[in-house]
Structures are given as structure tokens and as C-alpha cells.
Design a protein that fits this description.
Quinone reductase that provides resistance to thiol-specific stress caused by electrophilic quinones. GO terms for molecular function: electron transfer activity; FMN binding; oxidoreductase activity, acting on NAD(P)H as acceptor; oxidoreductase activity, acting on NAD(P)H, quinone or similar compound as acceptor. This is FMN dependent NADH:quinone oxidoreductase. The protein is of the alpha/beta class and 193 residues long. It has one domain: Flavodoxin domain (Rossmann fold, 3-Layer(aba) Sandwich), CATH 3.40.50. Helix content is 38%, strand content 23%. The chain has a 5-stranded parallel beta sheet, with helices on both faces. Helix 1 runs parallel beside helix 6 and helix 2 packs across helix 3. The chain is globular. The N and C termini lie close together (6 Å).
Length: 193
């Protein structure tokens, strides 16, 4: 059993979503002492100039307004820090990740909290964690040259230190939804807890 799972769903669809179904199956399969839930269908704010200024102001020099601007980001980072495993339901929209997932990335990729810079380049600070991506698409084959979602998600997770990334794919569902879902459900059953 996994101690703490951060369960993120990035689908805009609250019902009838293949990635929501798959991510829930993965969470159930792994078992957890604690589940932290983050549904990105509830919109996250986009970065603004004021947010960026607050983020790059040293923590001990931030005023109350800047601390308020960063409060949600701090909460999202804390969720990642507490998790042993991150399960992400990630549909492919227009060959890439949903805007909601990109907004989440922008709020959690923070220098000094989830990564740091060194003379050897950036170093992720969330090492020792596992991520499982439950990916679905209508016509895009996962891992193909037109799949800009899977590689991007792996890269960003690695950037913040999460290198152990598994993918469960229900891809090309527009062609054969039953086979895509069946293959994905078999992949869930084969995941090591």
C-alpha cells in the first residue's frame, strides 16, 4: 500500500471521462493510507505579472498581498511534497496537455521549492516519488510524433525531481474505444503497488 497518493484529474469533463475513470482505478488498485484530491476542472488562476513578482521576492520580504497571491501555489506544492505517488488523469487535447494542467505546472514549478538551479543546471527537489499518468486520446497514439502531452508531462515531472513515471494509455479511442479501455484496464491491473 502506498502511504499518500496525490490524485489529480485534468479532464474538463466531470462525467464520461476515460482519464478520470482510469486514474480512479489506479488509485483504488494502489491503495493508500491517505489520498489528496485535486480536480483541475475547477479552474486554477493563470500566472500574472504580480504573481511572478511575488514569487521572485524573497519569502521573508513578501508583503501580505504577495503572500496571498502565492497561497494557492504554496498549497499545491505542499500537496506534491506530501505525496509518495502522484496519479494524474491526463487527456490529450489538440495533441497536448489541457490548459488546466499547464496552469497547475506553472503554479508548482517553483525555484527553491520544487527545483533549484546549480552550476550543473536545474535539479528537481521532489526526488523519490512515483508518478502514474492515465492518458487518453481520441486519435493521437501515445508516444507518437504528434503526442506532445506525454513527453511534456514526463519532462516537467522529471524537472521537479519525479523520474519514476509510468504511463497507462487508452489512446486512439475514436478508432476502437472498447479495445483502448480494455488495454488500459489490463495495464492498471499490472501496475506494481
Amino acid at each position: 500500500m502506498t502511504k499518500t497518493i496525490l490524485h489529480i484529474d485534468a479532464s474538463a469533463r466531470r462525467t464520461g471521462s476515460a482519464t478520470r475513470d482510469l486514474s480512479a482505478r489506479i488509485v483504488q488498485h494502489l491503495g493508500a493510507g491517505r489520498i489528496i484530491r485535486r480536480d483541475l476542472a475547477t479552474p486554477l488562476p493563470l500566472l500574472t505579472e504580480d504573481w511572478i513578482t511575488a514569487n521572485f521576492t524573497p519569502a521573508d520580504q513578501r508583503d501580505a498581498t504577495q503572500r496571498d497571491l502565492l497561497a494557492l501555489s504554496d498549497e499545491l506544492v505542499k500537496e506534491l511534497q506530501q505525496a509518495d505517488t502522484v496519479v494524474i488523469g491526463l487527456p490529450i487535447y489538440n495533441f497536448s496537455v489541457p490548459a488546466a494542467f499547464k496552469a497547475w505546472i506553472d503554479l508548482v514549478a517553483r525555484a527553491g521549492l520544487t527545483f533549484s538551479y546549480s552550476e550543473n543546471g536545474p535539479k528537481g527537489l521532489l526526488e523519490g516519488k512515483r508518478a502514474i499518468l492515465a492518458i487518453a486520446s481520441g486519435g493521437t497514439a501515445v508516444g507518437s510524433e504528434i503526442d506532445f502531452a506525454t513527453g511534456y508531462a514526463r519532462h516537467v515531472l522529471g524537472f521537479i525531481g519525479i523520474h519514476d513515471v509510468d504511463v497507462v494509455a487508452a489512446d486512439r479511442m475514436a478508432l476502437d474505444p472498447e479495445a483502448a479501455l480494455s488495454n488500459a484496464q489490463k495495464a492498471v491491473a499490472e501496475l506494481a503497488a
